[in-house]
Amino acid sequence: MHVHILGICGTFMGGIAAIAKSLGYTVTGSDRNVYPPMSTQLEELGIALSEGYDVSQFDPEPDIVIIGNAMARGNPAVEYVLDRNLAYTSGPQWLLDHLLKDRWVLAVAGTHGKTSTTSMLAWILEATGLEPGFLIGGVPENFGISARIGKTPYFVIEADEYDSAFFDKRSKFVHYRPRTLVLNNLEFDHADIFDDLDAIKKQFHHLVRTVPSNGLVLATAAEANMESVLEMGCWSQKQFIGNAQKATWQAKPLKSDCSNFTVIHEGKTAGEVQWDLIGEHNMHNALMAIGAAHHAGVSLPDAISALGTFKNVKRRMEIKGVVNGVTVYDDFAHHPTAIKTTIDGLRNKVGNQKIIAVLEPRSNTMRMGVHKNQLSQSWQVADEVHLLEPSQLTWSLQELVQNSKVPVYLYKNAEQIVAQLMTKLKPGDHVLIMSNGGFDSIHKKLLNALAEKHA
């Protein structure tokens, strides 16, 4: 079978491509921007890539076309598929039909923490000999790849609430049919897709409806939005995580940065996690991963031990370099809640040392100004904030300068930010760069500038 993928270089669609290749299919694909690292990974798999959407890519004609959710009507390749009545489907539907329908699916959903929690869960299963398949919206350091088929029935997947395709506006995760479901948290996001929070809740409840009665739903305790989703109806076993009285799983930090914590299951101490990660949010993610792995048959001591060797996902508080005592981090945070938890976690780690937050508010939701009132509250424990003002912004970042209790500086490009930082950085400072995009390679530019100055 020849599978052709439109929009192949995104993490999800690239993972689909890798899985299809592993299943023995001939795989080709195209994207507007074919660039590393995904292009390199795909080429190493022997997958032929086309730049752009010229219709010549359909020669020879594929057996089926998988259309990514970034593809829209008017795209030449999409119009060609429709006009010639070629067989087509969405990525999530193809994944269900060709792989997930026969697997024990462990799905991780929620506004925040999906990638990290999915990676933790996959690693616990791997470290305990279960050799799972997985599809993750990032590259976990323990594996070095974002997707694989696996050798056992277990398949771990990051369950994204984004829509499936232009012809299927259901969330991707509705197609996954999990037996083990993690519901981490729920806030309004993706304003380009959803009209309001209730619209997202409806999709999450569609997901809950797909879990069998002998399956398990793991949810955050005392999380009002998720509670309202479960109140719509839940026909599966439920367990809760957090510090509420009804919680099955709890954690007690042994260090302020949560790099060491006790795991408590049904009121009894189950063990102690010691790892390289920091932050209360990661401690919470770990509990979710432990609970999900336990449902799949992993003992608590083994799950807890496995996290001791877990390496975080790329772009999650990833240290890009240390030059002359200045540490530069890269993080994917782009929602006010994620920005706050990321900065708070770093503050707990570094104490009174200076934290300089650098942010590119580039997500569609951020460009629309949906979170502008929360954004200035998200960085209050940083010492100063430097913002790139992106193009196509529908509101003024000047509002954030006026509403912030810590100094905020605005820039038109990454070079201006680097130049300004170079006038003030000192040994012991921490530069936390946050964006869900490439941010014009600002990390490399800053590290190069620091190295030149130090030399």
TrEMBL record:
Pfam families: Mur_ligase, Mur_ligase_C, Mur_ligase_M. It comes from the Bacteria. ATP binds at residues 110-116. It catalyses: UDP-N-acetyl-alpha-D-muramate + L-alanyl-gamma-D-glutamyl-meso-2,6-diaminopimelate + ATP = UDP-N-acetyl-alpha-D-muramoyl-L-alanyl-gamma-D-glutamyl-meso-2,6-diaminopimelate + ADP + phosphate + H(+). GO terms for molecular function: UDP-N-acetylmuramate-L-alanyl-gamma-D-glutamyl-meso-2,6-diaminoheptanedioate ligase activity. Reutilizes the intact tripeptide L-alanyl-gamma-D-glutamyl-meso-diaminopimelate by linking it to UDP-N-acetylmuramate. Belongs to the MurCDEF family. Mpl subfamily. This is UDP-N-acetylmuramate--L-alanyl-gamma-D-glutamyl-meso-2,6-diaminoheptandioate ligase. It comes from Glaciecola siphonariae. The gene is mpl.
